[in-house]
Amino acid sequence: MITLTAQENTVFTVASDQLENEDYDKIIPFLKEKIDEFGTINWYFEMTNFKGWTLSALWRDAKFDLKNKDHLAKIAMVGEEKWEEAMTSLMKPFTDTQIQFFDLGDREAAKKWITS
Hints:
By secondary structure, the chain is α/β, with parallel strands linked by helices. The protein has helices at residues 21-38, 55-67, 82-91, 107-115, and strands at 2-7, 10-19, 41-53, 72-79, 98-103.
């Protein structure tokens, strides 16, 4: 399950449970719309009670991120699990995008960082 909102060039996504292919039918057009509008966007991605991605959803996420890496200025990954933090570290070598992990309790600091 996801919720999507935006504040100018910053997209806020809150994900819970497991993301599925259908979720990316909403996420990708929303992100593309903001990229078309602003050229470069920031992406706040909060994971609460998150169980990961289905294989097809993970593939769509990876393809989008790689294809649009020049349009992503910052990504704030916000979660509560060590694997979520490790996943954030694994993303860094594949992009010049500033990527930072924040603990769920530090979501306000993450929001401040992503919009600065």
